[in-house]
């Protein structure tokens, strides 16, 4: 018996999805990863360089990038959690969370959380302490610490991109193996 949501029961009384419902769940996984990767690429290669090229001061550009980065981080975390939940729902098996594609998404979430809750707040405090990054003397220990944290932030974001590309490759590979 098939229900309106594409659900049915197999002969072994095990819950199964129709082909359409399974496809919809897989699309949600792809969409979550695509939104996250796309926003990360757009911020890294369009918004950040554009802000620093167009705005009158580096302080203003940094404020725009910091604002955008925080929103992108939270959106990415939500996308990652939704992806993992949908994956479990689609496979009906918690062990799907230890598949390589899912582990890549977990790495993406962890790197993003570290950046958002450990690195970004410290950078924000340093911005306030300096008043203006542009006006801060080149030899300032505050500026040196800011540069160190910025380097860590870029490394974490690069790790998210690499893990995301790997996850995308692995999810496509999984999909191809099903056929």
Ends apart, CA distance between termini: 25 Å
The topology string of helices and strands comes to EEHHHH
Low confidence ranges: 1-5
The backbone outline, from C-alpha atoms, is: elongated
* Largest sheet: number of strands, sense, barrel closure: 2 strands, antiparallel
Mean pLDDT: 91
Strand percent estimate: under 5%
SSE layout and pairing:
Layout: E1 7-9, E2 15-17, H1 19-54, H2 58-91, H3 100-130, H4 141-178
Antiparallel strand pairs: 1-2
Helix pairs in contact: 1-2, 1-4, 2-3, 3-4
Characterization of the model:
This protein has 179 residues and is mainly alpha-helical. It has one domain (19-178). It has 4 helices and 2 strands. The protein has helices at residues 19-54, 58-91, 100-130, 141-178; strands at 7-9, 15-17. Strands 1-2 form a two-stranded antiparallel sheet.
Primary descriptors:
mainly alpha, two-stranded antiparallel ribbon, 3% strand, elongated, disordered N terminus
What's the gist of this structure?
With 179 residues, the chain is mainly α.
């Amino acid at each position: 018996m098939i229900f309106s949501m594409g659900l049915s029961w197999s002969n072994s009384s095990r819950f199964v999805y129709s082909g359409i419902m399974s496809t919809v769940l897989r699309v949600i996984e792809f969409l979550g990863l695509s939104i996250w990767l796309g926003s990360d690429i757009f911020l890294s290669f369009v918004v950040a360089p554009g802000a620093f090229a167009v705005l009158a001061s580096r302080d203003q550009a940094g404020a725009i990038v910091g604002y955008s980065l925080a929103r992108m981080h939270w959106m990415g975390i939500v996308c990652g959690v939704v992806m993992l939940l949908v994956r479990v729902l689609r496979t009906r098996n918690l062990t799907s969370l230890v598949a390589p594609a899912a582990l890549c998404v977990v790495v993406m979430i962890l790197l993003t959380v570290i950046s958002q809750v450990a690195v970004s707040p410290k950078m924000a405090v340093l911005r306030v302490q300096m008043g203006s990054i542009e006006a801060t003397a080149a030899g300032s220990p505050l500026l040196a610490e800011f540069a160190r944290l910025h380097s860590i932030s870029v490394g974490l974001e690069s790790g998210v991109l690499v893990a995301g590309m790997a996850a995308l490759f692995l999810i496509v590979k999984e999909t191809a193996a099903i056929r």
